[in-house]
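Homework-ish question, so no full write-ups if that breaks the rules, but can someone show me the predicted structure for this set?
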Amino acid sequence: MTQVRLDRAAPVALGVVVLAAWQGLVWAFQVPDYLLPGPVAILGAFFAAPRLLLGSLVSTLAVTFAALLAAALLGVAMALLMALSRIARAAIQPWAVVLQVTPIVAIAPLIIVLVGNPFISLVVCATIVAFFPVFANTVTGLEAVPPELLDLFRLHGAGRGRTLLLLRIPAAVPYFLSGLRISGGLALVGAVVAEFVAGSGGFASGLAYRILEAGYRLEIPRMFAALVLLAVAGIGINMGLGAFAGFALRRRGE
Amino acid sequence: MLRLDRIGRRFPGGVEALAGISLDLASGDFVALLGPSGCGKSTLLRLIAGLDPPDSGALAWAGGRPPAPGEIGFVFQDPTLLPWASAAANVGLPFRLHDPAPADAAALVDAALARVGLAGFANARPRQLSGGMRMRVSIARALVTRPRLLLMDEPFAALDEFTRHRLQEDLRALWREAGCTIVFVTHSVYEACFLARRIVLMTPRPGRIAREITADLPEGPARRLDPAYATLVATVSGAMTEVLRDAGETAG
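A: Not a homework solution, just the prediction itself:
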């Protein structure tokens, strides 16, 4: 129990120490805010315009969760298709890799122009970034079935559909949840990158837009405040999806 | 029940696993396939189960038709349970794999669990059970469809000595009660002698049948202490040594 408490307290303690050292150095060397604002100045910038920044956070999170949902649905659908058909597998696999290795920064302008709707274009960009982990993990999970269990299913005359439903899909759940957790972080990264590329021509309300805007105006503390909000959102998504995975697996008795 | 006629099997790559296996399985028999690791015992079991086809020879089932799904039970070396399903759901799995499931499926599951001594563990998940209990669930799953033929591939190999002895005794009792035919793969002379009515000795690869020894021991757990058991172990061990020596000379 004490060990668990220490494990939970350790990252918080490290954060406090780093923040204190950061603030101390900024004060000691009188670093101006436009070069490196301290935590106090960043906190001040947040409380100077909390509704603006939180509104931007909501906007970025809307893109992130829409992309995560789309990536999960698309990833699972593609993985199931690959598990059901060898031809589908041969057809999909190379294109999935193409999606993985294509830099989103390179194709985001094209997507934004082609799609037109700013929100949907940002979601498409973030979906492309978030798609691969959930897809690849689900594919791995659908295949990671003990051969003896497959033999047992064959012995009892189970067809491909029943094997998929009763064996492969339940076996893939932990892999899918693990992929979803990775994709959650990537969806946020994808949303921010797409907002950056879109700039003022995009949705014009996300945190990346606030970072760009604050940079142009040399409001560096606000820029950092937006960055902190992004980091907090990333940690929240990661922990939230981790807790969800733990809850789901515990409910299954694993 | 089943006649194997000069069965042969090659693995991809050309390695000959089995050669000229001829064997008769009578209804209600308990046969142990005994041989060194890699001699093709498990391959032979898979051929009997219909999981792999033979490359030569033929399997002739009594009545001319191979068993329907559920008429063969298979117990693997590992329990291979669904980790997300309860013991009862694992035992009832065969009923969900082919249609139609019997109307009394739930009662059959309960009976199978009770038969292996796990009546109070229907809702337990595999991770909550010990290794021996997981194997009992696996055996119950194989028995739940009341198979005519039960194939067991070294099911007790990974268990500790105490659990293994207990399960061996329980398996003998189950066999007498259920009246099905059992083919049991093992590389333990002691296990084969304790369990089986017929011990089939196999040569190292390619697996051939070298000898068949009939075991005639009194029933009950005390058979392990019976002088006839010690004699049988000595006989089978001696035959095994001869088989290995002959195989070595042939290879040499």
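Now go work out the reasoning yourself. Hint: The helical segments of chain B are 41-49, 87-91, 93-97, 105-115, 131-143, 161-178, 189-195, 227-251.
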